[in-house]
Amino acid sequence: MLTLKDPSLLKTRCYLEGRWQGADSGRAFAVANPADGSTLAELPALGAAETRRALAAAEAAFPAWKRKSAKERAQILRRWFDLVMANQDDLARILTAEQGKPLAEAKGEIAYGAAYIEWYAEEAKRVYGDTIPGPSADRRILVIKQPIGVAAAITPWNFPNAMILRKAAPALAAGCPIVVRPASQTPLSALALAELAERAGFPPGVFSVITGPSGEIGPALTGSDIVKKLSFTGSTEVGRALIAACAATVKKLSMELGGNAPFIVFDDADLDAAVDGALISKYRNSGQTCVCANRFYVQDGVYDAFAEKFTAAVSRLKVGDGTAPDVTQGPLIDMNAVTKVEEHIADALAHGAKILTGGARHALGGQFFEPTVIADATADMKMAREETFGPVAPLFRFKTEKEAIALANDTEFGLASYFYARDVGRIFRVAEGLEYGMVAVNAGILSNEAAPFGGVKQSGLGREGSKYGIDDYLEIKYLCLAGLDG
Ligand SMILES: NC(=O)C1=CN([C@@H]2O[C@H](COP(=O)(O)OP(=O)(O)OC[C@H]3O[C@@H](n4cnc5c(N)ncnc54)[C@H](OP(=O)(O)O)[C@@H]3O)[C@@H](O)[C@H]2O)C=CC1
Ligand SMILES: O=C(O)CCCC(=O)O
């Protein structure tokens, strides 16, 4: 049973057209707690008709929302930020209940998500244009930036709060209404955010959250002329399909897709720091983030020492229900995730790898899995090519810096990468040589609201967060001023 200080944050209806509504059809779907399989709530399964209504309301809200001054929009965003932080404990409880991550991590995610609201409340006021010297004396070139129009977001289950706020905050700050369709496994966090958005004073239609089957809502969003911009976080496979579906209406796109992050430990690294970084990078959210280290490349000279220290640290992680004290790793999101992790481990063992710790379902049963470290990993294993998205760290051995860079870049993905080294020349060579949108040097975690988050290659398009993140919701308009000579 989910006990909240403010039970009205647990919603069982969707928020569109500025009202709480059920499905036209009366259909519903259940949201389960991954720690014990219990049903947390039944939510409305909206379809294409309700999606079209949400979009029509967003379109109707657009002119007045964009006409507000940046300061007025910032004030509403700021109220939303304050409300999210004032309700941090309840929001974290909802998040842990539907997603499984430990409560401390969930609280961290609420603050992380809220930081995007705060950041973009400030950035709203800094949407600057340009004046450019014209090619002739009688002309001036002015550049202004305007909101692109109605935005839509499709978000994943691994960060049920932050992935919404990383998209909604810049959209709303720029002057774009947004319709959010959260993952079916974690819609309660999204609806709680809608409750707080309503309290903050967003006008009807400016922020909506709709739940229901992706097969119905997805095409209604991608096929709509009203939606000028789609922002998606999730698998590369679904991202590709969404890009194709948006081609007909030529939408602007932001895509945060899969990763296959390398974590390189060089001979000159501070090994204790590398172990700490590896722990957070790999086992945060039970390994279920697109920036989680997926492949550990360790240089020959420190391989054994790193493997020993890292394995000892991983063995101390505590698995359990995310609401229990001291738990550092919750359950995986569903049984498909458990099966995928098992398949990757079985494949690695069949190719000659050796388990240093873990390697099996946890004694707690259900969706709990042991934090695992695997030695003697090689390039022909599945986990070298695919995102495992679970608590498994495969250790690969390498000899030279050039080899490490080549191995790290040998993937179609290019989201996050990590390396530990102290030689300053090496730090620049490797950082510049890695084909990734983000490189963490001597750090195991790199996300924050001030930094541009995003990938290259098949990891996606666009950047979220930072001063750059708002550009994805703005169009550049060129004003040609002629006849100024008099
Ligand atoms: N980059 C990242 O952050 C993430 C990467 N992943 C990767 O993807 C794998 C699979 O995870 P999964 O949750 O299935 O990721 P998906 O890409 O399938 O899901 C992400 C979101 O897209 C929705 N969706 C799925 N199919 C469609 C569609 N055809 N049209 C519109 N929306 C759609 C999902 O809805 P619904 O919930 O209803 O399926 C969810 O809201 C993971 O193992 C991991 O490797 C997963 C999540 C996040
Ligand atoms: O997995 C994701 O898509 C988001 C990564 C979490 C983060 O922002 O660090």
Please characterize this protein's 3D structure:
This protein is α/β, with parallel strands linked by helices. 38% of the residues lie in helices and 21% in strands. A hairpin with a 2-residue loop joins strand 1 (14-16) and strand 2. Helix 3 runs antiparallel to helix 6. The longest helix is centred in the N-terminal third of the chain and has 21 residues, at 103-123. It starts with 13 loop residues before the first strand and ends in a 5-residue tail after the last strand. Bound molecules: NADPH dihydro-nicotinamide-adenine-dinucleotide phosphate and glutaric acid. Residues 154-158, 183-185, 214, 218, 233-235, 238, 241, 256-258, 290, 387, 389 line the site of NADPH dihydro-nicotinamide-adenine-dinucleotide phosphate.
